[in-house]
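User: Can you fold this complex?
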Amino acid sequence: MALQDEDLIKSFMSIGLSEQKAKETLKNVNVTNTLKLLLKQVSGVALSEGTGMLIYHLATKTKPQICEHLPFIAKYIASKKLDSTVRVDKAIEYVLSHLHSIKDDEFEKFCGVGIVVTPEQIEKAIEKQIASVKNELLEKRYRYNTGLLMQKVRTELPWADGKAIKSEVDIQILDLLGPKVEADLAPVAKDKKVKVAAKEKAPEVKNNVNTASSNALSIMDVMKKLNFHKPGENFKTDGYVVTERTQELMKQHLKLTGGKVKTRFPPEPNGILHIGHAKAININFGYAAANSGTCYLRYDDTNPEKEEEKFFVGIKDIVEWLGYKPSKVTHSSDNFDQLYEWAVQLIKADLAYVCHQTADEMKGFNPPPSPYRNRPIEESLQLFEDMKNGKMDEGAATLRMKVTLEEGKMDPVAYRVKYAPHHRTGTKWCIYPTYDYTHCLCDSIENITHSLCTKEFQSRRSSYYWLCNALNIYCPVQWEYGRLNVNYTVVSKRKIAKLIEENIVNDWDDPRLYTLTALRRRGFPAEAINNFCAQLGVTGAQSTVDPSMLEAFVRDYLNNTAPRVMAVLDPLKITITNYPHDKATTVEVPNFPNKPEAGNHNVAFDRTIYIERDDFMEVGEKGYRRLTKTQSVGLRHAGYVLDVTDVVKNKQGDVVEVVCNCTAVEKAATKPKAFIHWVSDPVSVEIRSYASLFKHKNPEDPAEVPGGFLSDCNLDSLSISTGYADKSILTAKIFEKFQFERLGFFSVDPDTNKDMIVFNKTVGLKEDAGK
Amino acid sequence: MDNLNELYRETDLQEREIKNLVRQVEELRNAIKTKSAGPNECAEVANLSTENIKLNHRLAILQSAIVKEMSKGKKDSSKMESIQEILTSLFSTAISSAFPDLVDAPTVIALSKDPQFGDYQCNSAMGIANTYKKLGKALAPRVIGSKILECVPAHPLIANMTVAGPGFVNVFLDKNYGVNILTDIFEHGVLPPPIDRKQKVLVDFSSPNIAKEMHVGHLRSTIIGESVCRLLEYLGHDVKRINHVGDWGTQFGMLIAHLQDKFPDYITKSPPIGDLQSFYKESKKRFDEDEEFKKRAYACVVKLQAFDPDYSKAWQLICDVSRREFQKVYDRLDITIEEKGESFYQSRMEKVVKELDSKNLLELDDGRKIMWADGINIPMTIVKSDGGFTYDTSDMAAIKYRIDEEKMDWLIYVTDVGQATHFDLVFNCAKKAKILDNTKRVDHVGFGVVLGEDKKKFKTRSGDTVRLIDLMDEGLKRSLDKLMENGRDKVLTPEELKSAQESVAYGCIKYADLSQNRIGAYVFSFDKMLEDKGNTAVYLLYAYTRIKSIARNANFTSEKIKELAKTTSISLDHEKEWKLGKTLLRFPDVLIKISSDLYLHHLCEYVYEVCTNFSEFYDNCYCIEKDSSGDIIKVNVGRILLAEATALIMAKCFHILGLKPVSRM
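Assistant: Here's the predicted assembly.
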């Protein structure tokens, strides 16, 4: 071994690699193998200076799909027709898109074989570019980004040597600006955007670290930037497996799709969508929309158990709520007949077999290979039919595919016996296909171009490609993105069901949960959720965020969309003895103080008003700025200042009423320290406020919560109170949202009836302390 | 005013608060209610109901697999399909897929009364609606009917289905299906319906007593037993016909003693006993009057039961005489049976007693050993107080022998209904002794007594029991009279006349017996059975010869018909043709029904219905058209084929019923 390695290092060094580089290369098995192959190809040809490095470049940049064409490219390198990395890159690109139709002349043209760029040409091109940006250059001097400039030159002269361009640009700039002066080296003074917020006397939504800036990217922007393959160019993706039939199948596929992007959102219809799904919905629907493609909603209903009608309806409802319209609603079960036929085809091709190992025997690390792997095809065919006809007990037999997954897992199961009626196929089937088997085939049937899924499924990618190719059908490309997790909650349907069963929450849409129906009920706007997803982006990394991050997006959105009203959650009666009118008057309240154009609404103002109980203290504490026996307070929007004249108490000594005098603000002797909200002639409303349902960040983590997630529940997370709100909210519809001045954002709950309007507290105005 | 408003508001608030509290109390109550069923019980119920759903699902899958297997076109070409069974299977698949949550929803398939509303109907919807009602779910039977209809898998026999009335699903048969099945008869013959599995069946029938004459009482067992055997053999079972003759017991002592006195050299010379009946009477007289003879008779029994060769020889001789007499009757009635009498079980009786004893199943009662069956308040006497055995003993030994040694799957005993309790006891005790289990089937095929035309016990004018031989002789005479009355003697050759005479005589005796519900008493009347109208053998035999003559008149031989059937389809277009055709298609259904309840009168009713439907067809549809000079101008081959298929199915029915049709009568 060592000897071989040494030989290899030597041969690598012979093409110009340093010893260290050669040793490093050896660690990369793929590159080593490719390089070995290439060296064999060019052995005996005297390699001139630099050619060897181009061979090495090819070995590192090549893609598995084009491996059979490597000798072809190597030949061009050896004969110096491809003499720069640019040309080698171009060669790879050309071959990749013409796997089966390489024409020499076309190839040479594409790679610019034989084209020589003279220094004069470079000089000229750069002069031209510099002239076009001369003013800016003179202003910014050395802070000007010359990269852009060089890029333009390269576009004009694709075969020019990069180094030559660089040095020429440097020279010409030096020529223009002269050497760097001190100012050029000083740090850049940041552009300070002075944000002049309209100063309000009342507390404002405070920006904090988590506040999403309003000019954040929309999901469309994010999707447009994604660097996925174009429809029809599946084979350009790394890891995509090309077979003899790929091209033909791709032609058919393009004919059927018209070259459009096609994605799908494939939830299992056995639960309610949660915040994690919001990301999947946004990526799938968003990517299709951003590329003028279509996206299906596919119910992945291969598991017959517990698929209820309400889940089907709920999923579609939520997708639409988020603002997406599936171009078609499909079901995996639509394809059961086809899937079965394909399974038979696999068996006949000796690519699948019926196995009797138990689930336990298949589990664990490195389980033994199935002893049934090599049973006769006929036998598997018969047994598979027996499975279908109900002759096998559950667990007594599975159909397994002869393929090994990335992490070494052998022969994933394709079909298992399950005696359960299916929501859509009734008693037709007792064998149901697995995720591994169904997913790629349904994607293929639906001509999906981009099969987007979360990172966990990366290990299934090889079986995905294998299966499509084993059946000689169109093979989509699987792209993975990181899963979204939210702290302080659980999202698994089993766990939520348990919470409901234990009466800890009321239903799937209990506003303390992070299901999408729950968030909607709590008052989270769909747009805020989408913006939040856009912010997370489509990276491969798993993102785990605190609810406060999502809440910041909600607050941000509602601040501009939820009109303000006044409401008191814990009313204290105030009687104004010198009320200056005979009867009730009205006061105009702006819907959005920042946006006068958004209108006003009128609220009653009368002798009796109600203020928040904690806006009054008989004797104020230090720093208490609101009403006390000795301290006046202003009434927002009313233009009056209150002074206490008497405090009425009940037998228990609780304050039940405060009697005050009022003075118009402008006549007040001292300006009040604060203005508070109030209501008069109000309606009572039920207010439901929520605290976090779980006390720990990861309620499912046994290290953090040894007693299990149920033990971590805050049983007082729901508090219901009856408050007063001004009558303008009487016409509010379900899910309509308001900002209760000084309190937070509230949304009308579906429990609202003609007797009582019910509000859910969506979020406070400020991020809760302590989290 | 302000204060008042304030108070209003407060009451308002409080009212809401109260409402809120009431609601919460309600919720709590509900929560308690749902939990009060007891968590353990709930879990068990939940588990069982899950298990039930699974089993139902599997059942539905298996059923539909069977249906698919059946309709694969690879039909079992040695069987004729049973429409009732196919429909039952199709509908039970449909019901379990339409209502997977139901437990054992019964599939009720019946013939439609009015062909306007289909040929068959599924009546399950009403029952299912009731079941749902009990579960607190309101579902209209009509809705259920429609749902069932939607789920019925396609099958070539169904042309169309409708939902009618409160929820019947009406099924209209496909004529092409009928044409295919009936045309197949010419290629493969009339085939029996499929059976679940071939079984070894033992039919114990006839069973007269040695040394006694067979009388009319044995007639019914013999006729019914024979037909049961023929049916089961036709269905494809392995049938053993057993004559459990009474050849053991004390009477043989006196017979042997008498034989020794009358024919001392019986060992070397076969004694010429012509009339065993009078021989028996003589010995009986001596036995009753002569104390000494009686003692000797008992001694002979002991010797015989000890298998002393001389005594055995004497016994054998006596049995042979009897056997010859029995055989004469069997030959005339065309009965096949194998003798295995009580004597065969002597040693096995001893063994079975030991076995029962060792299993602690026997109880001592006043010197007897008795055995109780569960739920029956009379015991079996297994050993008498003198140590002797009884019928109970021999029947226990026989049942054990038949199950354990003969490896039978199904035992059928054909005796009069008076023995029903006895067999109930035997079967019960056999189960208790673990001789029988649920994998075996046992039936007691009981029949009522034979009455004379005066509705009293059937006797001769002198008051003696009617000897079977005499009865048959009279039958022959009456049959000949009938034929002569119709002037048949002038038309038929003497040979034809004789076979017609026998066919009618024995046929009518058997048919009269079989066409009655066997459980009831039956009135033996030659006048009635020889009538040529109505459901009688005479009518059927005449009708059969008439049908056979149609093809003959068209100059078609049976070979030619076979040939024609390959190119011409049987005709079922005319309403009457289709009515007859559908009746013919029911042949397998009828046989399946009989194989489950063993009532042969269903077959008689069926063949009679075939006959009347044929008459209707024949009255309405020309098979052969002739001009005025009697020359054939047109032959409707499709109809001739229908007539011929009718004849073939009737012939099959006749065979099972023991009727021998003749070509001319």
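The radius of gyration of chain B is 34 Å. The first strand of chain B starts at residue 109 and ends at 111.
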